[in-house]
Amino acid sequence: MAPAPRILPETDETTRPYWTSGASGQLRIAHCGACRRFIHPPPRVCPDCSGPITFEAVSGSGTVFTYTVAHQQFRPDVPTPFVVALIELDEQADLRVVANIVDCEPDAVTSGLRVSVRFEQHGEVFVPVFAPVD
Question: Is the Cα torsion angle 88, 5, 126, 46 positive or negative in sign?
């Protein structure tokens, strides 16, 4: 199935590793080399210790922390309803990313739902989306 139309992020040297990591099939999250914490969204330096940032692969597994279902169509080419969720990744408490939930009816989404990452390719950008784990 073709990915849904979406507004794509502008990438720069700080965010590009996150938005292109799906090319390898792995979600990569900013990681501090000094204090060893994952940080999202990607900063230039660690906000806790000012340590250097690299991007490390994570499992891509997590839990829906909270979510909303969009029923209002804000663009004619973006179908509704769709789910926007805050996903807490398994690697670290409070490591959360905002993403769409796919391959699931909006009414079936709940806080605590186990999900795993997939990627929608749009040119060089690989948008992370999450689907329920069977």
Answer: negative
